[in-house]
Target: CE1759 family FMN reductase
Amino acid sequence: MKLVVVSAGLSVPSSTRLLGDRLAAAAVGQAVDSVEVEVVELRDLAVEIAHHFTNGFPGRQLAAAIDAVTSADGLIVVTPVFSASYSGLFKSFFDVIEKDALAGLPVLIAATGGTARHSLVLEHALRPLFAHLRAVVVPTGVYAASEDWGAEGLDGRIGRAAGELAGLMQGLSGVRAVADDLAVVPFAEQLTALNSPSGV
Model:
């Protein structure tokens, strides 16, 4: 199985990347099957992401990153908090991925920030984004504020979330193809069918 970590950290070293690495290690440790981990650093793709918006084509590195994410068996996404939400770079990367490409994919959401006051970013920003993309978001998200590093509780949250992701990866492997076959009928089309004599 392949697990991909998407890190939107900008600094080197990055607490965002560190959290992603710890989550990946915990997921690998709890998985029954062998897991290959690949890390996508969005910092290195910023220029190609911007060019994609203007010319409609991904560069070589961006295309490889998109392929890694869309072919993964599980995904860990980690973003720093900017203006009480995910970073623009993080959102831009997922904006250039084809619609429905993440349908049925198990995703663990995580974020880092300078204060615990931003911890709800997981629920008001990240979870709705990946629900919209029809991914399967694990119940436990992980937020790490500056004071959480080395404090009690972070390891427990990492372990619980990683265990949920590992379980979904093993339980949902092979199910994504079924999810892709589900056709969504537009609401207007459904109303038209109800109003037509043949739809009665």
In short: The domain at 2-199 is CATH 3.40.50.360 (Rossmann fold). The mean pLDDT is 89. The radius of gyration is 18 Å. The first strand starts at residue 2 and ends at 7.
